[in-house]
């Protein structure tokens, strides 16, 4: 079951995923497709509906597809987010700096 993550805008979600190494692959209308170099074949789809936060189920599914927990995703805010991003990149994706 995917985690529910409420109150996150597209811009904030995109910034958090980019901290973890995800980058834009392509865009179809208002939906952005992100890929990660250490997860071939995995693509995240994020809707960019600027006037609304991302639906909690859609964001939860994207976080789960990225191999993250809700706690890890939520660590990527506020002070200490860069240190948390480094730790998550090492633990989840096996990336070294």
Characterization of this structure:
The chain has helices spanning 10-19, 56-65, 70-74, 81-93, and strands at residues 23-28, 31-35, 43-47. The protein has 97 residues and is of the alpha+beta class. The chain has a single domain (10-93), classed as Hypothetical protein (Metal Transport, Frataxin, Chain A), CATH 3.30.920.30. A 3-stranded antiparallel β-sheet has the order 1-2-3. It is globular, with a radius of gyration of 13 Å. The termini are far apart.
Quick tags:
single chain, 97 residues, alpha+beta, Metal Transport, Frataxin, Chain A, three-stranded antiparallel β-sheet, 3 strands, 39% helix, 16% strand, globular
Instruction: Characterize the overall form.
Output: globular
- Tally of strands: 3
Strand order of the largest sheet: 1-2-3
Query: Could you tell me the mean pLDDT?
Result: 93
Beta-sheet strand percentage?
Answer: 15-25%
Architecture (CATH level 2) name: 2-Layer Sandwich
From N to C, what is the helix and strand string?
A: HEEEHHH
- Low-confidence spans: none
- N→C terminal distance: 32 Å
